[in-house]
Write a structure and sequence with these properties.
This protein is mostly helical. The protein has helices at residues 5-30, 34-54, 58-79, 86-105, 110-117, 125-154, 166-188, 193-205, 211-236, 240-263.
Length: 264
């Protein structure tokens, strides 16, 4: 299968996503913001529908929509401090509504279905370069804020005392999540990306005991699921994104079962 350029490109994109999704997924999980991934995934679908409706690249629409949604979550949560989890619900509802409206303007659901379940094997040259460029930006910024993000996740009360601007850090991290989810939604599917954002990290938490160990383990699990999912989907002619997420769920269930038997 590596004789085909589209499969080489698919594995390259999957490698990139297999690294950046756990990097942002673990803090999202620890900050109890799992709904954020689902919210941004639906926002990406709205961006795709807007792109198809107005005739520009849907991936660009997805990136812009996710960034706007991420900023909106931050603005709403800052205004509703007592009910910060409501911010994701509000933006999620708006994203679903916009996606539904603009999807009806595109003239058919067939063009949208590829974005619902992913099309990593059919991305264009522009989309391939955009994914790699966005991934590079995410990795660089993530590395720069890694220590501050780690401290703010585990001790948000003490973080300001250590000179960490938690508001700015939260804003930057939300933008990273938005950008990563937007490119992942186009390649592995808007309905699937939120699962891959957290499931490898949940699995890694069952196996590792430290933050770095959990992060490294989650990246390894994510890459393994990506590669095996692509291989199976190629030989069985299945949707890559769907196969990848089912494998990740199976790995999580197997891990939980093994740990349960080990304890009993």
């Amino acid at each position: 299968m590596f004789a085909y350029e589209f499969m080489q490109r698919a594995f390259a994109v999957s490698t990139v996503l297999g690294i950046i999704l756990p990097c942002i997924g673990l803090p999202v999980l620890l900050k109890r913001l799992s709904m954020l991934g689902d919210t941004l995934a639906h926002a990406s679908l709205a961006g795709v529908a807007i792109g198809l409706c107005f005739g520009f690249n849907p991936l660009i629409g997805s990136v812009v929509a996710c960034v706007v949604a991420g900023l909106s979550v931050e603005v709403v949560s800052s205004r509703l401090r007592a009910y910060q989890e409501i911010s994701t619900v509000i933006v999620l509802a708006a994203a679903i509504g916009l996606a539904g409206i603009f999807t009806s303007f595109t003239g058919g659901g067939s063009s949208i279905s590829g974005y619902l379940f992913g099309s990593v094997v059919t991305i264009s040259d522009l989309e391939f370069k955009l994914v790699l460029g966005v991934a590079a930006v995410v990795i660089v910024i993530y590395r720069l804020i890694y220590t501050r993000l780690y401290l703010s996740v585990f001790d948000p009360a003490a973080a300001p005392l250590l000179g960490i601007n938690t508001k700015t850090l939260s804003l930057v991290f939300s933008l990273l999540v938005a950008i990563a989810v937007s490119v992942a939604a186009k390649t592995i599917g808007s309905l699937i990306v939120s699962s891959l954002l957290v499931i490898p990290s949940i699995t890694a938490m069952q196996l590792a005991r430290t933050y770095k160990g959990t992060l490294a383990c989650s990246i390894g699990i994510s890459l393994a699921c990506m590669y095996s999912g692509l291989t199976i989907s190629y030989y069985c002619n299945l949707k890559p994104g769907s196969v990848i997420v089912l494998i990740s769920v199976a790995v999580l269930l197997a891990t939980l079962l093994i740990r349960h038997k080990a304890r009993s």
